[in-house]
Amino acid sequence: QVQFVESGGGLVQAGGSLRLSCAASGITFSFYAFGWHRQAPGKQREWVAGFDSGGYTNYEDSVKGRFTISRDNAKNTVYLQMNNLKPEDTAVYYCHAIDLRPGKRPDIWGQGTQVTVSS
Asked: How many helices (H) and strands (E) are present in the chain, helices listed first?
């Protein structure tokens, strides 16, 4: 059974840090490119950061220099280190995985973890 378990969200003051984790099970971790998305109240879900098929990292402009995505293949876990958090970073953050193998397969999403940044 495929399962993504996210953790690390919470309430933090502006300027603070959080590290989100996404522990994956039921998949071959190396087959997937991972990323993080977020959805703020009343807004559409947006992409935040991710790995491309070559393993390179990319970031949405508003989080560049503040957020870092990483992965630990031995632990089947993806992380999002978030520093210098701002109130506009408040959202539910979702782990997301795309299967890199040939053929069409559904994307996989985590259940989300709430991040709230107070001013």
From this structure: 0, 11
Q: What integer best gives the mean pLDDT of the chain? A: 96
Tell me the residue length of the chain: 119
User: pLDDT digit string (tens) for 16-51?
Assistant: 999 999 999 999 999 999 999 999 999 999 999 999
Checking if the pLDDT of 53 tops 90, the result is no
Cα gap 35→93, rounded to integer Å: 10
Nearest to 79 by CA among 29, 16, 15, 18: 18
Q: Where are the alpha helices (DSSP H) in 1-119?
A: none
3-state secondary structure of 79: strand
For 87, the 3-state DSSP assignment is helix
Q: What is the pLDDT of residue 104?
A: 85
Residues 100, 101, 104, 108, CA torsion sign:
negative
Q: Are residues 112 and 48 in contact, defined by beta-carbon separation less than 8 angstroms?
A: no
Backbone angles phi, psi at 111, to 5 degrees: -85, -15
- R_g of the chain, CA atoms, integer Å: 14
